[in-house]
Design brief:
By secondary structure, the protein is an alpha+beta fold. It has one domain. The chain contains 7 helices and 12 strands. The strands form 5 sheets. A 3-stranded antiparallel beta sheet has the order 1-4-5, with helices on one face. Strands 2-3-6 form a 3-stranded antiparallel beta sheet. A two-stranded antiparallel sheet has the order 7-8.
Length: 225
């Protein structure tokens, strides 16, 4: 009897710790089951999704991965692979597949895709601090892009080529941040702020331009919209 009481108490204590770890991270649900087939690629481990799969965030947004999607794992930045591991060998495989599709489709803003991965990894069973550590790495060095139809297409950039880039970061600083996130379990706002400080070159679109302003030569001028 005492053993049963102890086991129940231990389970309740563990559940309380998990709830505290993920208090500031929403939890969603996965739709479907991951069924893949390996493709012959001597250089990059590549899979094809045999059945549609997706993730539904707590606020209702659905990230759908269609049947036939080629999963390459290239959406994860180099530091992620070095400091965390391969995206499809850990306890966040389903989350990595949904994020992989988001980085290829580029239909939603990059920061929303990163937040989705954070929420999905917690839903998959990753602890709060570890999910935040992965999120920090994506926030610092993860792929960034412009969604189709943004005002950057056809103005400062052409309409045909996708706008995709990765920031250049201070790798030693990012490694230190990884230990800080795992140790202190900071808020998501603090993680985002400190991850941005580790970025040395953010790539394009560093300087926001008002919707009704354009450059004429080297002079910024206004126009009516």
């Amino acid at each position: 009897m005492n053993r049963l009481i102890f086991a129940i108490a231990a389970a309740a204590f563990s559940a309380g710790i998990l709830a505290a770890e993920t208090a500031d991270i929403d939890s969603g649900t996965f739709d479907g089951k991951v069924v893949v087939e390996w493709l012959d690629d001597p250089f990059v481990p590549t899979m094809r999704l045999v059945e549609p799969f997706g993730f539904r965030q707590s606020k209702g947004k659905v990230w759908q991965v269609p049947e036939g999607h080629i999963v390459k794992g290239r959406g994860m930045p180099p530091l992620f692979r070095y400091l965390i591991g391969q995206p499809f060998s850990g306890g966040f495989r389903k989350s990595a597949i949904v994020y992989d599709h988001a980085t290829q489709a580029m239909e939603n803003p990059w920061d929303e895709a990163q937040r989705m991965f954070l929420e999905a990894s917690v839903s998959e069973g990753v602890s709060g601090p570890e999910a935040k550590a992965m999120y920090m790495l994506l926030r610092a060095q993860g792929s960034r892009w412009e969604v189709p139809g943004s005002r950057c297409y056809g103005s400062c950039h052409g309409k045909t080529e996708p706008l995709l880039w990765r920031p250049v970061v201070d790798e030693a600083m990012v490694a230190d941040l990884l230990g800080w996130v795992r140790r202190d379990d900071p808020s998501l706002v603090n993680i985002e702020q400190r991850a941005e400080r580790a970025v040395l070159d953010r790539g394009p679109h560093v300087f926001p331009v008002e919707r009704c302003l354009i450059f004429s030569g080297s002079t910024l001028v206004g126009r009516s919209c």
